[in-house]
Write a structure and sequence with these properties.
Blueprint lengths: L1 H41 L12 H15 L6 E7 L3 H7 L5 E6 L3 E3 L2 E3 L7 E11 L10 H5 L2 E12 L10 H6 L6 E9 L4 H9 L1 E6 L4 E6 L7 H14 L9 E3 L14 E7 L6 E7 L1
Parallel strand pairs: 1-10, 3-7, 4-12
Antiparallel strand pairs: 1-2, 5-6, 5-10, 6-7, 8-9, 8-11, 11-12
């Protein structure tokens, strides 16, 4: 009987110690997230976060992080899909894309002038953006079904942020927890989505052409660099949100990621992104830096 009591006592102590360790670890993680959020809001290099956590754990951390920054960013506007190329996934230690949240104050009008120091480590990317037509998109199971529930393709220049200090280790879990580097983006001209095969095929083969203010071509990539077809990124997002019990809403915008090289903008720079190859003619978005 005495041995049983001792065993129970030891088990109880071990349980308390384990609970205390978990609580201490949670407090440490929350403190680290707050430091990153404070750095993001003040545009200072953020300290490192722990790497190597699971994607699902990183999404939970993202919720906490987003709750710390959203008061200054307005209402949620949609989502961002990141790491959409195989090369990027291999480099960051994951076998699928990741997602973050976009807010209304992140979305800028076409031909906008932006301060060069809009973020900690400004990164410009030719991107792709779509708008959700209705909530039936959450029931879509194929790319063709997804097409029926998108309202428009929008020419989009993402103004991302490196966020972390240059010597901080970054993997997919860190990027996910810190909201995939979402900072801002320029909404250019748009085109109504046609669910017909001709539009679907043309969208896949559409070129993203980035030029500087003098008209010099800086990069030219095909839209199928995003998971074989941009619509695949939307389908992935629908499925990933469903796992978390979340849904897209009518009017949501979705940044689908970039197949193009990054650019580090400088004061006085101007960039024009053109979508070439969509039915109806080219679409453009323009941003300059002051």
């Amino acid at each position: 009987m005495r041995l049983v009591q001792i065993a129970l006592s030891l088990s109880f102590v071990a349980s308390i110690l384990c609970h205390s360790a978990r609580a201490a670890e949670a407090n440490s993680t929350n403190a680290a997230l707050k430091r990153v959020a404070d750095a993001y809001l003040t545009k200072k290099p953020a300290p490192a976060l722990s790497t190597g956590v699971t994607y699902q754990a990183a999404l939970e951390l993202q919720k906490e992080y987003v709750s710390l920054i959203q008061k200054q960013l307005g209402e949620r506007a949609g989502y961002k899909v990141g790491i959409v190329t195989k090369a990027g996934q291999e480099r960051l230690g994951i076998d699928h894309p990741i997602r973050g949240v976009l807010f209304k104050k992140m979305l800028l009008t076409n031909n906008v002038q932006v301060a060069t120091n809009y973020g900690t480590r400004p990164i410009l990317e030719p991107d792709l953006l779509v708008r959700v037509k209705d909530e039936k998109i959450n029931d879509a199971r194929t790319p063709q079904e997804i097409m029926q529930h998108l309202s428009e393709v929008i020419c989009f220049i993402e103004l991302a942020d490196g966020t972390f200090a240059t010597n901080a280790p970054v993997d997919a879990s860190v990027l996910t927890a810190s909201n995939v580097g979402a900072r801002a983006g320029v909404l250019g001209q748009s085109r109504k989505v046609d669910a017909q095969k001709s539009f679907y095929d043309a969208w896949s083969q559409m070129s993203l052409v980035l030029k500087d203010g003098a008209g010099k071509e800086l990069s030219r990539t095909k839209a199928d660099g995003v998971m074989g077809h941009p619509v695949h990124a939307v389908l992935w997002l629908v499925q990933d949100l469903k796992k978390a019990g979340e849904k897209l809403k009518a009017g949501d915008v979705i940044s689908l990621g970039s197949p193009s090289p990054q650019v580090m903008p400088k004061k006085g720079d101007k960039y024009v992104l053109t979508y070439e190859g969509l039915p109806g003619g080219p679409l453009t978005a323009t941003v300059s830096f002051k």
